[in-house]
Design goal:
single chain; 83 residues; alpha+beta; 5-stranded antiparallel beta sheet; 5 strands
Length: 83
């Protein structure tokens, strides 16, 4: 067996709708520089401080403020309560 094949990292997660915890710990909001929260149902990375939700498309976080959607007041309240 090829050594390169055995050195390859294991799949980060078996569920394509999950995000790797190590990756999430490295990512920050490009606007506020604060930590992000993963919203599995919406497939977004949420930053309450900047009131933005960054989409995850095909398993790739799109960390561009122009691509993010603004959080509603109700969403901000809900996310603050879950912290």
């Amino acid at each position: 067996m090829d050594d390169a094949a055995t050195d390859a990292p294991a799949a980060a997660t078996s569920d394509p709708r999950e995000i790797d915890a190590d990756l999430l710990s490295l990512l920050v909001c490009p606007v506020s520089k604060k930590a992000l929260t993963f919203d599995k149902a919406e497939q977004e990375l949420v930053c309450v401080d900047s009131r933005l939700a960054y989409p995850i498309r095909d398993g790739i976080p799109i960390m561009l403020p122009d691509e993010a959607r603004e959080l509603s007041d109700a969403e901000v309240v809900r996310w603050r309560q879950t912290r």
